[in-house]
UniProtKB/TrEMBL annotation:
MF term (GO), any: transmembrane transporter activity
Gene3D superfamilies: MFS general substrate transporter like domains (1.20.1250.20)
First and last residue of the signal peptide: none
UniProt subcellular location: Membrane
Major location (coarse): membrane
Keyword tags: Membrane, Transmembrane, Transmembrane helix
Ranges that cross the membrane: 31-50, 62-84, 91-109, 115-138, 150-172, 178-196, 216-234, 254-271, 283-301, 307-325, 337-358, 364-384
InterPro entries linked: MFS, MFS_trans_sf, MFS_Transporter
Name of protein: Cyanate permease
């Protein structure tokens, strides 16, 4: 019978502890998460400039931006297959170097086809580092024998804040998009270079077959898709929701997502201690219930009290995805690298398809009903918390 474990899983416990549970590998993992979030967020403030360079409509720009998602979905399963053989290090480096190389090109491309190609590579690089850094994080966490995943994901959120805030500040100071992109790439490259020698090195093993997700992995992937769907909906629709209900002035439309992001980051920075204290099942249970309560408050409360709902949603969802990734790395139904890739890919599909689905439901009914449906979907997380946490 073929052994489905990853090469790192075949190491003895003493070998794993000495090679993975070190301050160096934890630092490398944090830097990888930070760099991915930072470079990804640097692109967001550059989008209007890219649109101006091309002279395209909103619809045409939307089609071009789909290339990021297409590139990511292509790269994620391949990265899982590679990581299941040799660990996450090679693909962390490939994805990181790809991101920092392509970002400056996004600032100057004036041909739609060239931008589509650049965005495809950008998305593939993002998908590669996303899967690989989570595979690496799983190995480091398993060796440490204590929760670390929430803290790693918090670094991604902090990188996002730093990237978007830093690039916005540079552009507001009338720095050119190219100069800003080069600065962003330089900082991202520095993080990757510092992480490089500290990343966990795994010996090559027997290549696992590319298999469809099965068993517990399907459940984990489905719950991840729901959680990612909520994050994407809050990002894309929270401002319109607040304006539709006359809860804020038009200039304050971003307040809901800002509160959500702050709460999520705070929840992840303290999440490892919380998970260690209550366990994975209770983290999923109470996180899901808190998220549902946030939606109920957001939809039922009046005035500024409704904004507290965004805080509850951010706190509730903060540690759900990290726990799901940890569980994907610990299960034995399929190789850990492939399982993490499956959870990431299916979860990312929720980010891509979710906001569009919310738009269709909102058009047919109302945005409030669409948000009630999100609350109903999130209720599946506490309902499924026991089987999802069982290994």
């Amino acid at each position: 019978m073929a052994d489905d474990r990853t090469p790192s899983m075949l190491l003895s416990e003493p070998q794993m502890a000495s090679s993975a549970d070190t301050a160096r590998t934890r630092l490398a993992t944090r830097l990888s998460f930070f760099a991915a979030g930072f470079i990804m967020a640097c692109w967001a403030p550059m989008v209007p400039f890219a649109k101006a360079n091309l002279g395209v409509t909103d619809g045409e720009l939307g089609l071009l931006l789909l290339c990021i998602g297409i590139g990511s979905i292509i790269a994620m399963p391949l990265t899982g297959w590679v990581s299941a053989q040799v660990g996450g290090k090679p693909m962390i480096l490939a994805g990181g170097f790809g991101l920092v190389s392509v970002l400056p090109a996004l600032a100057v491309v004036t041909d739609p086809l060239l931008l589509a190609a650049a965005l495809l590579v950008f998305g593939a690089s993002l998908g590669a580092i996303d899967v690989a850094m989570n595979v690496h994080a799983v190995e480091v966490e398993k060796a440490a024998r204590r929760p670390l995943m929430s803290g790693f994901h918090a670094m991604f959120s902090l990188g996002g804040f730093a990237g978007a805030g830093g690039m916005t500040w540079l552009l507001s100071r009338e720095v050119s998009p190219l100069t800003g992109a080069v600065c962003g790439s330089g900082l991202g490259l520095a993080a990757i270079l510092v992480a490089w020698p500290r990343l966990l090195q795994v010996q090559g093993g027997k290549p696992p077959a590319l298999v469809a997700p099965r068993g517990i992995v399907l459940l984990l992937a489905a719950l991840a898709a729901i959680s990612f769907l909520v994050e994407g909906a809050i990002l894309d629709w929270s401002a319109l929701f607040l304006l539709d209900r006359d809860l804020v002035e038009p200039t304050q439309g971003g307040l809901g997502y800002t509160l959500f992001s702050i709460a999520m980051t705070a929840g992840r920075l303290t999440g490892d201690r919380a998970v260690q204290a209550v366990g994975n099942r209770r983290t999923l249970l109470w996180g899901g219930l808190l998220t549902v309560a946030g939606f109920v408050l957001l939809l039922a409360a009046q005035g500024m009290a409704a904004l507290v709902g965004f805080i509850l949603i951010g706190l509730g969802t903060a540690n759900i995805v990290p726990v799901l990734f940890s569980q994907a790395g610990r299960q034995t139904a399929m190789p850990a690298g492939l399982a993490v890739a499956a959870v990431t890919t299916i979860g990312y599909a929720g980010v891509l398809a979710g906001p569009a689905a919310i738009g269709f439901v909102s058009h047919a009914t109302s945005l409030s009903i669409a948000f009630w449906l999100l609350a109903g979907l999130m209720a599946l997380v506490p309902i499924c918390s026991r089987p999802a946490a069982r290994l």
